[in-house]
Amino acid sequence: MKVIVLDNYDEVSKEAARLVEEKILADDELVLGLATGSTPLGLYENLIKGHKTRGISFKNVKTINLDEYLGLDNNHPASYHAFMFETFFKHIDIELTNTYIPDGVPKSAEEECACYEGMIDHVGPVNLQLLGIGTNGHIGFNEPGTDPNSLTHVVELKESTRENNAHFFQSIDEVPKHAITIGIQSILKSEQIILLASGKNKANAVKTLLESKEKVNPDFPASYLWTHDDVTIIVDKDAYSIV
Ligand code: F6R
Hints:
This protein has helices spanning 9-26, 41-54, 80-87, 109-123, 159-165, 184-188, 203-210; strands spanning 2-6, 31-34, 62-65, 67-69, 99-100, 128-131, 153-156, 178-181, 192-197, 231-236. By secondary structure, the chain is α/β, with parallel strands linked by helices. The protein has a single domain (2-236), classed as Rossmann fold, CATH 3.40.50.1360. Strands 1-10-9-6-2-3-5 form a seven-stranded parallel sheet, with helices on one face. α1 crosses α2. The protein is globular and about 40 Å long. The structure holds fructose -6-phosphate. Fructose -6-phosphate binds next to loops.
């Protein structure tokens, strides 16, 4: 696991964008695994800038998102479909048919999960997976306790996760209690993984992650990243402050 410590959130976002651009320039048919939440917002801004000012093209790029809330349709402003469209996709030249996000209102959640995992195997492998990290060590929405062999599945969100994400909703009561997430195993199928973390509120999670090499365990799902051989963690000084 390679660790890059930078001054602040801006630097983390720029470095992550630089690495993504480098991959796209090397292979314009890149398959990118994408995350939502607050952390990647700066990365997406920088990628949009790269597209608008330096002509970085996403025309042939495919994207596979980690997760979606169960019960929110694509038009719900807090759905990850809406998030990805508003913060990233509508500003670049990506074909929306090349973007994949789990359906939040499937007829059968079980079928949707099986279908999404099949899509990952068909469209993938993901060449570069971008991740954030939850304060409880979740990656995607793989909450503590998740089986390391898990594929795409329905998860019950922890209260702490609902609270952390409540700012995207009018109130915490609106935050769904369940989501569809790709599994730990699905994440580990990616060729390369970059995890971003910024701010003092992630310091504990980053410390636990970096100390978990000999203690890979389901109570801290991000610890499974130690079992992958191409993981880079890009953090700012605040997130690295107690390591
Ligand atoms: C989002 C996701 C989550 C977030 C994590 C951190 O698609 O999969 O694992 O990366 O909850 O969220 P933020 O960045 O909002 O702190």
